[in-house]
Amino acid sequence: MVPLAPPTDEELTRRAQSGETGALGLLLARHQAPMRAVAMSLLGYGPDAEDAMQDAALTALRRIGDVRDPAAVGAWLRAVVRNAARMRLRATRETPGLDGLEYLQLRDHEPSHPERLIEQHAMRDWIWDAVEELPQQLRLVLMLRHFSGITSYQEIAAACEVPVGTVRSRLNQARGKMAQVLLSTATQAHDDASALTKESKQEAVATLQASEHGTLPREISELWPAESELVGRLNRQGERIHPVPVMRQTLESGVRQYVRHVVASRDITIWEMDVTNPTGATNPCPPTLAWLMFRRNGRVQRLRVVFPEPRR
């Protein structure tokens, strides 16, 4: 029996461009040695070269559709590493951690673009499975920075109640771990991330509607069990407060919230809201806010409401 020839670079590239995550994983593994050699030639042996490799892997993930000559993908990958290494040589670099992951940011109102394979194929699920592998602290800052409207270091620091330096550090750690997980899970099956987000958005709409009617149906009341706790800015009393009475109090003041965007992982959920105030309100609520929820077995354990700075 004649052994099957391994797929060529051209074949793997075309398969990756059609959304096959395993093909991209094979390409990165096949060209890992020459890519590392490029990184080390510019940055020397050490963590900077490895960081450039990780940045390059993530760039390849989102830009594989840009390869015009699939047979020459090796040269393209080396060029990606070279650019990543040069970026690290620039002391003024501001972009943290997951270089370019902003391009993977998905919004309900955004149209689909050809280069966004993550939206069209299995890339989205691959990314979110990797996000789920991060420790909760790292996952939260990454979800805020790259998938929500709360993107500045100062806003993330306020939302997480940590110093800005800690935000930078956690984003850096998240970038390294994400790259490692992506490479190690490329050929695996991945959960449907869009289904989780869709379910969470339905929960958000149902929660707001139920609050307006004054009663929570069973499926929504189970989302907010007795042990749910409101923490952060809205809990000025410093004691355990259940979120539902605060929701009702907010409604009674005439404030209305409308779901704008949802970011969901298995145990962290972010609901971003647009807000309207009653006419003549003396102490109006900011025009946008976000619910940060920490869940266990699907139920909300802690809710923190944060108020991002208005965009100039």
What do you see in this structure?
By secondary structure, the chain is an alpha+beta fold. It is built from 13 helices and five strands. About 10% of the residues have low confidence. It folds into two domains: 183 residues, no CATH class; 113 residues, Nuclear Transport Factor 2, Chain: A (Roll). 50% of the residues lie in helices and 12% in strands.
Name the features.
312 residues, alpha+beta, Nuclear Transport Factor 2, Chain: A, 2 domains, five-stranded mixed sheet, 13 helices, elongated
Quick gist of this model?
This protein has helices spanning 9-17, 21-30, 32-43, 47-63, 73-89, 117-120, 123-132, 136-147, 153-160, 164-184, 193-213, 218-221, 243-252, and strands at residues 229-231, 256-264, 268-276, 288-296, 299-306. Helices cover 50% and strands 12% of the residues.
Number of strands: 5
Which strand order does the major sheet show? 1-5-4-3-2
Q: Quick one: overall form?
A: elongated
- C-alpha termini separation: 67 Å
Structural class: alpha+beta
Order of helices and strands: HHHHHHHHHHHHEHEEEE
Low-confidence residue ranges: 91-122
Strand content: 5-15%
Helix tally equals 13
Overall tally of structural domains: 2
Largest sheet: 5 strands, mixed
CA gyration radius, whole angstroms: 22 Å
Query: Helical amount among residues, as a percent range?
Result: 40-55%
Mean pLDDT: 78
